Give the backbone structure.
Amino acid sequence: MNQPAIADSLHPVTWPDGYKAAASFTFDVDAESCTIAHDPASTRRMSLMTHQSYGPKIAVPRLLKMLERQDIKATFFIPGFTAESYPDIVRRIVDGGHEVAHHGYLHEPMQGIDAATEASYMDRGLEALATVAGIRPVGYRAPWWELNWHSPGLLADRGFLYDSSLLDGDAPYRFAVAADDPRDIVEIPVDWTLDDWEQYAFYPGVTGSGVIESPAKVLEMWTLEAEAHHSQGSCFVLTNHPFISGRPSKAVALEQLIERVKGMDGMWVATMEQIALHTKATVNEVHTHARIDVPVFPGAGAQFEPAVVRQGVLA
């Protein structure tokens, strides 16, 4: 199998104003949307719906107060359905000076859908955010972190600056939306280790193993991750869901984490938009994601197509 070349620099970004590394605290305000998308019949389950509505009703106000105390700005990825259901909460997020980014319309399952269907989800989400809060987001995070190969082109068509759905880096980079397309967008990678879903999420018959971790354990784990990113000059991106990490003990641990990250020498705590703008302005190389082609399996082998990973670098 032919493998693509590896870039010389693992972290092409140099941070502004003498900062050594970057960190961003992000919140996916899924509310009821992710559960409904998974099973529309879940709307009949009153207790399940209240479990999800805890996010915008109780947790987001608590988190906004915490972010104000800590004097930092965060990025909130909001499905269009959530915006339509809780417009006052979305406006409070905007009024607090935080970034609002796109997260689908109904947190739709994305795997394997066609481009026209995905485009309709994007457009409906954009329309909802514009109607509710008068904003045109520059950032996108795919529901379930599930991009399709045609997704980047759809994002570029709609003028998005950045995506945060891929998992192949520790720092932001620019990538071509397709091998034969001159346009590029910024990717700010994510990591399942830095998602509260894997630590805390549980609802009988819906999600999770039933093992809900101690916030003390999660604080230790995320602190270690932040320290490692800081030491390597990369970008720590934490993904939280308000209906999970906005509950009392988890919110306390999150605030402790923010205090620790802020206290790291030379750590730039910024919104995703700020990080993406800096990346776009300062990083010249453009990554091309190689697709693996397996025309006949087994027996024919597999190959990367194209073999270009960064402009001018061939396998």
User: Anything to note?
Assistant: Confidence is low (pLDDT under 50) at residues 1-9, 308-315. The longest strand covers residues 21-28.
